[in-house]
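Changelog note: in this version the structure field was regenerated for every chain. One regenerated record is shown below for reference.
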Amino acid sequence: MPSGRTRLERDSLGTKRVPAHAYYGIQTFRAVENFPISGLRLPVEMIRAYALIKKAAAEANRRVRALPPRQAGAIRRACEEILRGRFDDQFVVDAYQAGAGTSFNMNANEVIANRANELLGARKGTYQRVRPNDHVNMAQSTNDTFPTAMRLACLSKLPALREAMQRLERSLARKGRQFQHVVKAGRTHLQDAVPVRLGGEFAAYALAVAKARTAIEQAARALVELNLGGTAVGTGMNASPRYRRLAVGALRRWTGLPLRPGAHLQERTQSQADFARFSGALRAYALELIRIANDLRLLASGPHTGLGEIDLPAVQPGSSIMPGKVNPVIAEMTDMVGFQVLGHDATVAYAVQAGQLELNVMMPVIAYNVLQSMHLLTTTSRVLSRRCVEGITAHPRRCRDVAERSLALITALAPAMGYLQAAAIAKESLRTGKSVRQVALDRRLLTPGAARRLLDPIRLSRSQ
């Protein structure tokens, strides 16, 4: 039982006492009792998206003369207050809730209805002038409002993710230019390979992030197609024929997004595959971040027992027992975030395939995981750029020394003396510790001038 003052509310299952101060009502309170699962809430972008949808619905219903102007105006004003963040604490349903998001939809309906009643001079919980289902939810169903909110929420978070990725791209590209003349050993299979430029490695990282951003933006294009107006199963039952066009048009004006009604509302209601593709693009970016972070950890390993070719910024002491130790903590955090995003994507995949017949009821877990992935990738991209990449420095002499000792330099001699002869030089270099250059000179296979020219790491690392 709730503590403090309460009010009595009634729904189709009976009556229940609700906290008197609450703007949510009996159906939300039932959901709080039914789903004490995680303590997690759907992200605030879902609240804002729902407020926009309910505002657009009220406007469309007013225009088709299904909703009286006075009620429509009160609903609109209540939604505008929610858009300003006034009632965030009244959205109390757990992220793991009733299928399809019915509990969240009713949470929105009740908060808006109670505030609209206040604006019209009635008390919360009386629903004398504005009712949650009859007025706020008019011409709607959870089955078309929740997926519409998911799409709006993802699209609203996309600019921040794009900006964070672009900053990381620029940071990596700047390091590519800064390190363009630093020659180092290439490595394949974690073994010596022909020389490369450190700048080339970082320029490649920048391009990988750019390609991932493009893929995310392309996947997001499908999210502008809405099933709003399809109501329960995509047939539009209980909605005016004009409602869909008017409601989507209002959302398009208010958001500036190229939103449009779905070509087939039953397909839009049945399938959540757009989120599988979008989440997959986020997953691909997470994989690239993991790869880049691990490369940075390898390149900075040491300082004396690893590669030691770059230094990452020292942002905090690395050990509670080893004084002076500094660890690659930003790169490590990036890995952990990447792993989490992979888990989110796996959850989305399972949920997307769980749709049955006319509806996928697993939408709340899809929404939570996709939006959480977007949030994590946005903040991590910013931090990786600002607190790691932008402060990376190189050790050019160390890079050059290792490159000149690399057995892979023999690759440059293979066209002149043949693969087997070149391999024999490599084996002797490995056995004796002499450089490839020195072995070739000792065997009188090269003149000093030819050795300098053929085995010059700077020339060998130049892009063709």
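Spot check on this record: The longest strand covers residues 191-197. The first helix runs from residue 26 to 34.
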